Amino acid sequence: MWMCQKCNRNFKSVNQSHMCSSNTIDDIFKDSPDHIVHAFDQVLINVIDWEPCSVGASTKSIVFTKEKAWLIAKPLTKELDLKFYYSEKIEHSLIKKTTVYKDIHAHHIRISGESEVTEELITLLRKGYDFK
């Protein structure tokens, strides 16, 4: 793993192309309602102990990185969008949308409160964490 000296984010490759951001996680959630902040906090509590895992703020989202980004959390107006990657399309009622990038499927889950961070949701996120 390589850490950019300007923005302190971790990346798979040395000098990997990215947009540096001076944002903090607090900056990303600055105008978000409390229920979205609490939802993010609950996700963070459930995945932060998965090793290795680093968390950093991008320009408009929070990026969870293992060897590469495995989860992107982005606050929306009324919901928190959680995007994780997997080798195939996962059919599940929690998944709102799937986008394909080459052979990788990006799955979006939208939650609006901490009570929606269930074992079922964490199990889906773990698939993204374990995907290589």
Walkthrough of the structure:
- The protein has 132 residues and is of the alpha+beta class.
- It has one domain: Yope Regulator, Chain: A (2-Layer Sandwich).
- 23% of the residues lie in helices and 31% in strands.
- The chain has helices at residues 25-28, 34-47, 119-130; strands at 2-3, 10-11, 54-57, 62-65, 69-75, 80-86, 95-101, 104-111.
- The strands form 2 sheets. It has a 6-stranded antiparallel beta sheet. A two-stranded antiparallel sheet has the order 1-2.
- The longest helix is centred in the N-terminal third of the chain and has 14 residues, at 34-47.
- The radius of gyration is 14 Å and the shape is globular.
- The model has no long low-confidence stretch (mean pLDDT 90).
End-to-end gap: 15 Å
H/E series, N to C?
EEHHEEEEEEH
- Counting helices, strands and paired strands, the structural category is alpha+beta
Give the low-confidence spans.
none
Largest sheet: 6 strands, antiparallel
CATH A-level architecture = 2-Layer Sandwich
Please give the number of β-strands: 8
Task: Quickly count the helices.
Answer: 3
Structural domain tally: 1
Quote the CATH topology.
Answer: Yope Regulator, Chain: A
Helix content: 10-25%
CATH class placement: Alpha Beta
Q: What proportion of the residues form beta strands (DSSP E)?
A: 25-35%
Overall morphology: globular
**How much is the radius of gyration in Å?**
14 Å
Q: Averaged pLDDT, please?
A: 90
Spatial strand order of the main sheet: 3-4-5-6-8-7
